[in-house]
Design goal:
This protein is an alpha+beta fold. It is built from five helices and six strands; from the N terminus they run βαβαβαβαββα. It starts with a strand and ends with a helix.
């Protein structure tokens, strides 16, 4: 988990930091039926490892400060670094709502056919590597 603390918040003086943005990462697996339509090469039939952004959120009081973008890029950096050591086909995220879906689309995530997850999105690891190398 990575998070951003608001150092100007009143709670900090009392020793209680205020988290204004965070994300979580974990590993998961997908089958080719879930992401095969967005991959350029044919995938095996067995589950493939992916990173999962479990949640990325920014407090309403911190909107407009590009914290979501900064946290997403941090997540992409961490995943691409891990992918140098362990297998990782890409990154999946389940957008909370349509606003979240539009946010991820700006960073080249694409919606995949996953009937149980209507807003499941996927970013191939090569696209993630290109995104962090541009920074």
């Amino acid at each position: 988990m990575a998070y951003v603390v608001d150092a100007s918040a009143d709670d900090v003086a009392a020793g209680l930091p205020t988290v204004i943005a965070f994300y979580t990462l974990s590993m998961a697996a997908v089958v080719s039926a879930d992401v095969g339509s967005v991959m350029e090469k044919k995938l095996p039939r067995y589950p493939m490892p992916v990173a999962l952004i479990g949640r990325l959120a920014v407090d309403d009081r911190a909107r407009g400060r590009r914290l979501g973008e900064a946290l997403l890029l941090d997540a992409l950096y961490r995943v691409t670094a891990a992918a140098e050591i362990v297998g990782c086909l890409g990154i999946i995220v389940d957008a909370k709502d349509e606003d979240g879906k539009r946010f991820y689309e700006k960073y080249d995530f694409v919606t995949v056919d996953a009937s149980s997850w209507p807003r499941r999105m996927f970013l191939p690891i090569g696209v993630a590597r290109a995104a962090v190398s541009d920074q």
